[in-house]
Amino acid sequence: MTPTRLKTHLLDRLSRKGPITFGEYMSLCLYHPEHGYYMQDRERTGVRGDYFTSPDLHPVFARLLARQAVEIWEAMGRPAPFTWVEMGPGRGWFARDFLSWTRTAQPEFYAALDYLAIEPGPRRRARLGEKLREDQLSSKLRLLENLEASPPVAGCFFSNELADAFPVAVVERIGGRLKEIYVSAQGEELREMPGPISNTEVAAAVARYAHDLEEGQRVEVSLRAVQWIRAVAEKLTRGYVITIDYGDLAERLFTSDRPRGTLLAYRGHTASEDFYSAPGEQDLTAHVNFSALIDAGKSAGLVLTGFTTQERFLMALGEENEFRDLYDPGQSEAEKLQARLKLKRLISPEGMGSVFKVLIQHRGLDAPQLTGLKYQRKTMTRDK
Considering its fold, how many domains does the chain have in total? Predict the structure, then answer.
């Protein structure tokens, strides 16, 4: 296989300067300004990409989230503006479907809505703006490069499959001691090697959330995810944070049945543990430790509203009108059948429905009984 441009760059850098932590390696793979996976103008999701996200499957995902947004807006006293911040908008399907539905079905909410989208890649921002201009929705959209550029927000911060893409440290118990995984150059190949823990915060996270590691077992630690939720909390003056991603609470995530952790590479809709052959050309991702997001949010002033599965969240939002949002006017029976099959993928307990979790946190208000949390299992919540 011909080395990727980023691999050539990494081999040269590592040869000259020595090994780097896996976290730094992952950061370069995903966010290198020129060669990073997320910084390139490429199809990452959908049929021509490397994986599917919920917004890729069907507009009903965004429509049901929009119903939850309207309920939040009303519970907050129908403020104008009501700011909805989407972090990591990808190809823009969610923004398009959310705005299209609210424009027609909830015109008062749409009139009050201020939609911000945070996308670090300049080419991705340009494409997103172009997509919404085509649907005559761009007047509602403001594009930002990063969270720091966001003004204080009264409304809701939303992300879908964002936190799983933050770089992680990889820690393994070797010879009874915790070691961090580093990446080095050996000839023309990238190789991993154990080394000392690079950051006391990494060691503290393992001690707090995965202290029973067995010999040879690996776990991932995302300090970036903790920093991110704290930064979101600082920007939120009043309202909610909705985080949807695959992962779980720590006690369900760091278990002996995952001896190699949760880290995976995705390319061409195929998952592997080959993290080193195609840096910059494949996604690298790890399951989200929602316990860390809950605890970090609490320390920054966010209150836990609820925690549930995507299946229970979407079912609760859709059952009141028997999932009427699933269909478009004039659809044939065959098209309606295809829509039902796509909904099944979103909520199936054997797939996205149970793997993906929904974390909702709030600040500056008394938490109403949100419809999307109606079926949350009380044993899944964490309040400590």
Answer: 1
Structural domain boundaries, residue 347: 54-164+223-252+288-380
* pLDDT tens column, 293-323: 999 999 999 999 999 999 999 999 999 888 9
Which CATH number is 80's domain given? 3.40.50.12710
User: Residue 131: its pLDDT value, please?
Assistant: 83
Task: Annotate 16-33 with b (16+ C-beta within 10 A) or e (fewer).
Answer: eeebbbbbebbbbbbbbe
| 3-49 per-position pLDDT tens digit | 899 999 999 999 999 999 999 999 999 999 889 888 877 666 655 55
Residue 340 lies in a domain: yes
By the 8 A CB rule, do 38 and 165 touch? yes
Dihedral over Cα of 347, 351, 354, 358: its sign: negative
| 281 within some domain | no
Contact 116, 86 (CB under 8 A): yes
Place of tokens 């996270």: 205
Q: pTM higher than 0.70, yes or no?
A: yes
List of residues 6+ apart from 354 with CB closer than 8 A: 309, 310, 311, 348
**Is position 20 within any domain?**
no
CA distance 275 to 283: 9
Examine residue 214 and state whether it is found in any structural domain, yes or no.
Answer: no
**Integer Cα distance of 153 and 149 in angstroms:** 12
